[in-house]
Amino acid sequence: MNLQQHYDQMWMQASSLFESGNFECDAFLHTPTDRRRGITLLARPPLPVATRIQQMLDELQSSEPRQYYYPTSDIHLTILSIISCYEGFMLDLISPQAYIEIITEALRNHPPFGINFEGITASPSCLMIQGFLNGNQLNQLRDDLRVYFKKSDLQHSIDKRYSLQTAHSTVVRFQIPPQQPLDWLEKIKKYRSYDFGTFEINELELVYNDWYQKAEHTVSLAKFSLGQMQNF
Fold first, then answer.
1. Residues 6+ apart with CB under 8 A from 201
2. Residue 160: helix, strand or coil by DSSP?
3. How many CB atoms are located within 10 Å of the residue 64 CB?
4. Distance between CA 40 and CA 160 in Å, rounded?
5. What residues form DSSP beta bridges with 230?
6. pLDDT by residue (tens digit) across 29-79?
7. Which whole-number Å values give the CA distances from 13 to 8, 122, 176, in the listed order?
8. Which H or E run includes 187?
9. Per-residue pLDDT for 28 more than 90?
10. Residue 228's pLDDT band (boundaries 50, 70, 90)?
11. Strands 230-231 and 36-43
12. How far is CA 104 from CA 136, 148, 227, in A?
């Protein structure tokens, strides 16, 4: 999969909709009754990279404050959605330790890997940081996780919605159509090729989360140094 071509295609389709004022707005962002929960294996960018992302978000928010901008604490890269969020899922329905053990086995021979956050792309509902991989390690890691879970009898929904192949990070979601969509689009375009930084991913985290990975609804279940594992 050519990530640059994929991100470019996403941008062209979304920006065309934006120019005509078509945005997909999320009605659930601040709904207190939203009980969708799941389990995700993720990674977080280091502070210098997250700070550059936050600086962009601050600029966009100053001109369009009514959108949802991810706080630094919530910015993440999804490695694999183990159980996609659904209404009624709770931790006491599963054995978290069983998930920790199978992930530990799947990750045992995987070294750290590098990623570059460069530029942004979009869908009709959100803005994303583009992630580019140094090598094929992330895809191999995801494939091993898929194999281990498919051989197990543990509840999972891996690849049920779609097969995750990119390395993007969602950072803005639309709550209402922007007041000045064309002006805002011009601000966004400044970051189409902006270099947010290159970093090494050497730690993954398994979390119980809501749809948006909000820190106040997230429970950390385990952290994994690639090849090793630390429990809370």
1. 43, 77, 112, 113, 114, 115, 226
2. coil
3. 19
4. 14
5. 223
6. 888 888 999 999 999 999 999 999 999 999 999 989 999 999 999 999 999
7. 9, 8, 19
8. helix 181-189
9. no
10. low
11. unpaired
12. 20, 10, 8
